[in-house]
Design goal:
Elements: H1 43-51, H2 64-80, E1 88-93, H3 95-106, E2 112-116, H4 119-129, E3 138-141, E4 158-162, E5 164-165, E6 170-171, E7 183-187, E8 204-207, E9 219-224, H5 226-237, H6 248-255, H7 266-281, H8 284-305, E10 309-311, E11 323-328, H9 334-343, E12 359-363, H10 370-387
Parallel strand pairs: 2-3, 2-4, 4-7, 7-8
Antiparallel strand pairs: 1-9, 5-6, 8-9, 10-11, 11-12
Helix pairs in contact: 1-7, 2-7, 3-4, 7-8, 8-10
């Protein structure tokens, strides 16, 4: 692991001292938002929301004006993911973090197996381990910057792992283990809408929309297979206690009516639908994934050519195409780069703090223009040249 205890640009207290470096305006990206979540929200989506403020916002979520938008979103996601026959789109409040709790009550029957290779996969493990009605989960871990292999495990009924680990920039292609009686749950929070996948490889493809789908938070959405629906209904019928706000049977029933059990953030639903429509209108998931891949190819190619930077994830097949993590050697302080860029209007590219590396983390979701990623790397070079 690269460390920099005496990084240039730090005061004796260890705090970053930000040099006064002005980047020429012609070098700057058109939009300086590269956050990995919350991510860039397209201005066009916000303007569309403003245009509908008087007939959509501030009304009941059970009225037809809102149900129509929910229906558009559910249909749009089915189109985006090429949902197989029998698969449904359901939604509820609380984000992916809330969905982990929903899954412990309504999808995991007795014991789950998890791939844990970053902060968010690890949090689902904690949720399952803390559920008193479930057995201790099985967990496969790997070194940071990699992912473990997905293999069948005896005695489990649910396999759980992220499509894209937002904290480390590691991705894994969704697949099923050779276990016909289990279901597969894929956390797609930073991958949904920006990465290719085979929908038939998943039973529950769930996500929050504040990353690749360029929306706000507070909502979870999931594409569920017939096997997942059967599991939800069977656990519900068993009488297992669960809070109503975490009851997937209630979420399923309400989603079929194009609504949620309790009041959702209407702006989040609207903004998510805008992004889904934008992607579908431009060629769907192949177009969006190619757009993110173009950004990723440039970012990793730039890092490989840099004398001071390198991709954190060593295997190209595991490098995320939507969240890029870039290490720097000890001659450069990534925190200084982050603060100088922020002072020039380039935002939210700092590394994930708990990872503890001299690193930048860059969101390359479909809403981020690949030309802006190109401009970003030129700006990083400009800053390094002036602080070296």
């Amino acid at each position: 692991m690269k460390s920099a205890p005496n990084r240039p640009g730090r005061c004796e207290s260890g705090q970053v001292s930000t040099p006064d470096i002005a980047i020429p305006s012609h070098m700057l990206p058109a939009d300086g938002r590269f956050g990995s979540g919350p991510s860039k929200v397209r201005p066009e989506s916000v303007r569309a929301l403003a245009d509908h403020a008087v007939d959509y916002m501030g009304t009941s979520h059970r009225q037809v004006t809102v149900q129509f938008v929910v229906a558009e979103l559910r249909n749009g996601l089915s189109e985006l993911f090429a949902a197989p026959d029998g698969y449904e789109i359901i939604l509820g409040n609380g984000g992916a973090t809330g969905f982990w709790d929903c899954a412990t009550f309504g999808l995991i029957e007795q014991r789950s197996h998890h791939l844990s290779f970053g902060e968010f996969g690890g949090k689902f493990v904690k949720a399952a381990a803390g559920a008193p009605h479930l057995d201790e989960p099985s967990v496969a871990e790997s070194e940071p910057g990699t992912h473990p292999e997905l293999v069948a495990v005896d005695g489990v009924d649910a396999y759980c792992y992220p499509h894209n680990e937002t904290s480390t920039g590691v991705m894994i292609d969704p697949a099923r283990p050779d276990d016909a009686d289990a279901i597969t749950l894929v956390d797609a929070t930073s991958g949904a809408g920006g990465l290719h996948f085979d929908p038939l490889a998943t039973d529950v493809y769930y996500f929050s929309p504040q990353k690749a789908l360029a929306s706000d938070g507070g909502l979870w959405l999931a594409m569920v297979s017939p096997a997942a629906v059967e599991r939800i209904e069977r656990i519900h019928a068993s009488g297992r206690w669960r809070p109503a706000s975490l009851d997937l049977k209630l979420a399923l029933d309400n989603s079929r009516k194009d609504q949620t059990y309790n009041t959702p953030a209407l702006s989040t639903i609207f903004l998510t639908g805008q992004t889904v429509s934008w992607i579908n209108d431009n060629g769907g998931l192949p177009w969006a994934a190619a757009r993110s891949a173009q950004s990723a190819d440039h970012l990793y190619g730039w890092a490989e050519q840099s004398p001071v930077a390198s991709p954190y994830v060593q295997l190209d097949s595991q490098r995320s195409r939507v969240v890029g993590t870039i290490d720097f050697d000890n001659s450069v302080d990534a925190d200084v780069i982050t603060e100088v860029l922020r002072s020039n209007g380039i935002l939210d590219i700092g590394g994930y703090r708990k990872l503890g590396r001299n690193q930048l983390r860059i969101g390359m979701f479909p809403a981020v223009d690949p030309d802006d990623v190109l401009a970003l790397t030129a700006c990083i070079d400009h800053v390094i040249e002036h602080i070296a």
